[in-house]
Design the sequence.
């Protein structure tokens, strides 16, 4: 049955749309308010066309300005970084997507689309937040709106702007180097070209934005978790700031990261996922109370094969479903204890659906068919128009981050306790953690981060901020069993050719 579907797709949709994803610059030079109004039409549950159009754009196909089927907003770049980390394998190379990421050939070419797409996406999102900030807080962004509603809109815009810079820092720098100049800073929508700034200034800008955002939420009495959890609220902002501090890495910043992540843990708003929840599919924000932030997707969003689900989920009518699967590193899978419920999130070779129908995807595939799957969970009812949500942040991240920064500070007891609090649900016996300390404790926390957050776009940043190495699995198509240092230039995105050609002051 799978072969028939594969042939049909190959002759129709896929061969017709998978040619080289040429840059589409003219139609995406700017994101005007009218553009944002049109974008928001894809998600009718969003109320404010200007601000909430940003959330719609974050899940939109081709948001990176190309026609590539790996171009669909933040979750598309999560796949990029997960593949570079070595935790996510490209199991086959049927249609070619991601193959030149996995073998580094496009990573080393500053004119390639994988280097262009994230840069284009994040900077156009930044420009759009600047339009909102300018309209509410004046040209210099310092005016405080009078109404609570406008304060909240401004708080969200500043937090989103910082989040975009946070992703740029992770992807385009080798790690925190205060004096390295890579990223231009745009504080207003009227700035056309800006030179690259020292990384220290970028971090100062992110921290300032996030602190001001939290103050605005507090001033508007809007510090409670939002029921729908599909927007950046006060709690999500706190989580982003915890990540920024952890990435900056000095002792004072690590202390702040530990404090913020602990506040989120202790808030009581986000229970840890149950054993059953860890195997429920990660497909609906409303069914995952441990999620801080997700992207709600309905038929009106109009996503299909060009989506994160299309690339990863075998129960979606798209690439993974016809054999172009992405899976876990063999060695990472084998490192999961047999009694750990998370081992059931991955399937070695054959996947059985809710009707008992079984399909084989080859040996050593380690497909996440028990973690991420469309709500139907049936092969003959494959999800064609995406109705499964995206996860952007969940409380388990804060447990792992808190454990990590405490371990880096030498607070081993606190680090071990919070790690065990999370692992208790997953594998019961956590006594192996007790004997760990120092670098071994940090390494185990990163190991658990790889297991827990596989496929969620988090481990790449964790390894880089800890200055560790990436080791690829023996089932990796291009670089099996090879180890790469965190600052290997092949694993870091290049400032794209378009920026160097079109920004005459970049190197000033």
Sequence:
């Amino acid at each position: 049955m799978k072969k028939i579907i594969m042939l049909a797709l190959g002759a129709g949709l896929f061969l017709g749309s998978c040619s080289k994803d040429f840059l589409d610059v003219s139609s995406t030079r700017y994101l005007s308010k009218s553009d944002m109004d049109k974008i928001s039409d894809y998600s009718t549950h969003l109320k404010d066309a200007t601000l909430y159009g940003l959330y719609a754009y974050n899940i939109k196909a081709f948001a990176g300005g190309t026609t590539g089927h790996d171009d669909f907003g933040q979750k598309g770049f999560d796949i990029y970084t997960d593949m570079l980390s070595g935790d996510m394998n490209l199991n086959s190379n049927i249609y070619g997507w991601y193959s030149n990421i996995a073998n580094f050939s496009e990573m080393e070419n500053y004119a390639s689309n994988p280097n262009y797409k994230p840069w284009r996406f994040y900077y156009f999102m930044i420009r759009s937040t600047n339009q909102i900030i300018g309209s509410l807080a004046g040209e210099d962004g310092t005016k405080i709106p009078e109404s609570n509603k406008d304060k909240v809109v401004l708080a969200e815009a500043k937090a989103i702007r910082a989040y975009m810079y946070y992703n740029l820092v992770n992807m385009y720098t080798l790690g925190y180097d205060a004096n390295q100049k890579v990223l231009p800073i745009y504080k207003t929508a009227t700035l056309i070209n800006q030179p690259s700034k020292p990384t220290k200034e970028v971090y100062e800008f992110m921290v300032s934005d996030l602190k001001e955002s939290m103050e605005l939420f507090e001033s508007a009495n809007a510090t409670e978790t939002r029921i729908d959890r599909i927007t950046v609220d006060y709690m999500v902002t706190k989580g982003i700031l915890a990540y920024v501090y952890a990435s900056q890495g000095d002792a004072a910043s690590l202390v702040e990261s530990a404090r913020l992540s602990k506040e989120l843990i202790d808030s009581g708003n986000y229970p840890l996922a149950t054993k059953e929840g860890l195997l429920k599919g990660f497909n609906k924000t409303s069914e995952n109370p441990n999620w801080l932030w997700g992207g709600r997707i309905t038929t009106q969003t109009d996503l299909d094969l060009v989506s994160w689900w299309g690339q990863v989920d075998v129960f979606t009518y798209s690439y993974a479903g016809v054999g172009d699967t992405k899976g876990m590193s063999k060695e990472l899978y084998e490192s999961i204890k047999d009694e750990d419920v998370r081992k059931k999130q991955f399937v070695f070779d054959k996947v059985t659906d809710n009707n008992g129908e079984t399909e084989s995807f080859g040996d050593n595939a380690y497909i996440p068919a028990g973690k991420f799957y469309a709500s139907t969970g049936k092969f003959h009812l494959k999800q064609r128009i995406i109705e499964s949500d995206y996860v952007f942040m969940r409380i388990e991240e804060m447990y792992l981050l808190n454990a990590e920064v405490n371990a880096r500070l030498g607070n081993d007891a606190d680090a071990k306790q919070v790690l065990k609090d999370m692992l208790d649900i997953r594998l019961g016996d956590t006594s192996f953690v007790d004997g760990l300390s120092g670098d071994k404790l940090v390494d185990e926390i990163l190991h658990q981060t790889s297991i827990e957050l596989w496929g969620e776009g988090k481990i790449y940043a964790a390894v880089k901020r800890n200055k560790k190495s990436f080791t690829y699995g023996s089932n990796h198509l291009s670089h099996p069993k090879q180890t790469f240092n965190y600052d290997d230039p092949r694993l870091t995105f290049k400032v794209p050719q378009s920026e160097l050609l079109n920004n005459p002051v970049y190197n000033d």
